[in-house]
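Quick log. Single chain, no ligands specified.
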Amino acid sequence: MTIAQVAEKYGITPDTLRYYERVGLIPAVKRSAGGIRNYGEEECNWVEFIVCMRGAGIEVEALIEYVSLFQAGDATLEARKNILVNQRQKLARRAEELQNTLARLDKKIENYESVLIPAQEKLRKKGEQNG
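-> predicted structure:
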């Protein structure tokens, strides 16, 4: 697949793909004789993984370290797992913070509804009396 096809498939820009390759988030992509990137299944799997992790807010630095360790082989299994566990813990804390924010917004919305609906009803009744 070309860079444009991969970008479209995963909803990112070609510039983002080039950046991911430059910083080591995805392995170097094979190129044609004319220098055009040719993404195969393995590269696409990496792109999908990185897009998923970035979409969840996983830090670029953690992913760079993870990919580097992956490329170093099976001796790094524990270190890779630790990176993922650490990032999961951070994500769980963020999810909890988001849940708290949602709850606070829900209360604010309820407060508006408890004020606005009675006020609108009062105005409607007043309009009927004057009409």
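The chain has a mean pLDDT of 91.
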